[in-house]
Amino acid sequence: MARKGRFVSGIQAVRGMGDVLPEEGARWDGFEQTARDWLEAYGYRPIRLPLLEKTELFVRSIGEVTDIVEKEMYTFTDRLSGESLTLRPEGTASCLRAAIQHNLLYAGPQRLYYAGPMFRHERPQKGRYRQFHQVGVEAMGYPGPDVDAEHVVMTARLWRLLGIGDVTLEINTLGGAAARARYRAHLVHYFERHAGELDEDSRRRLHANPLRILDSKNPAMAGLLSEAPRLLDDLDEEALKHFEEFQEILREVGVEYVINPRLVRGLDYYNHTVFEWLTPRLGAQGTVCAGGRYDGLAEQLGGKPTPACGFALGVERVLALMEACGAAAPALPADVYLLHQGEAADRFGWRVAEQLRQAGLKVILHAGGGSFKSQMKKADASLARFAVIIGDDEAQVEEVSVKPLRQAGEQFRVRPEELPPLIKHRPERA
Ligand code: HAM
Questions:
Q1: pTM to 2 decimals?
Q2: I need a surface site. Which of 110, 137, 195, 276 has the fewest CB within 10 A?
Q3: Whose CA is nearest to atom 30 of ligand 1?
Q4: Does residue 420's CB lie within 6 angstroms of at least one atom of ligand 1?
């Protein structure tokens, strides 16, 4: 993403909110196309959600005592209604809100996906932005560990499709409500005994949300956290069975994983399975994809009880990882750059460009006039495969001259309708 540039006096983009310039835009398009095909191959259907929601939605779902809700939301009061609104920091809450509001959950289980910008007021750095993009997947109405496994298996497949390597999968289980309550009590007891070692944030969270203390990145607390009680020890049989069945499928399909008992996720709605895909290639912001099960959220938001599971990947991070792995998809160049000069040629050029596009070719029609020489420079720079040249000579007999730009070959002349099959069948030089 283009974040920094030469200083120009004038209006700049908001800090942490980048532009995607055309060069990169083509890579984004390529990624989005692959992602859409991938999601459809697993039977997921698109849902489009608003960028603004009532603040209460995120407070109730992500949790009041979390970094996102306490520090990172873009929240403002609507001038007319007086309502508190928030730019969405994530998509799960909105997706479930929409499913409840439109009674989707009564029509049977739903496999849904969304893509788009999310907003978090974090300290910007490489891989961490204030406006970033996610592709998110939510499967609602599925209680079993099979859907949890589907989410992991499908992300593993996406990495292969994108040519990404060097990612590892960490998994954990947070158990059901009863296990979490037991664990919470153990944690509070442990941290109370070590209250002197807690930083200010953690002291504040000790009774409100002790699990969040485990999220702390403060190196001074690392020792304390590594000795903390483990949630795995408080799990009941049902939770262990769910977790074991989930792992069985991963082993069956051959997805490697590591169990990280300290993985708790930064949002409160999770229970049972949680997972993160991490890479060492992106420095501190190495989580490229994360998610898990959130069986209690529908009810918490006023819907009927609905077990659900999902994940989201950070598009900027995935694209950066593709680049780091040398897997960046090349932008697909146009087939034709169409040069034209002279009154009759200009008019004929318009017709030819439309005719070629109708036949399925990608055509850049030169705009802005200029000599053939200067137009040819632009044709070269566009990386198009062929220059189609129309002067008044050609226009008079309704033909075009064609010059291969990226492979050896002589210039030739044809009628426009003869061109598409010729161009389509010419082998590209590597
Ligand atoms: P999350 O872990 O907060 O989960 O975000 C998911 C992914 O979004 C992260 O792994 C990361 O790749 C990307 N991401 C998060 N914050 C930033 C940022 N400031 N800049 C760049 N990328 C970022 C969720 O959002 C859950 N809604 C995922 C989920 C869906 N769970 C169940 N369903």
A1: 0.88
A2: 195
A3: 311
A4: no
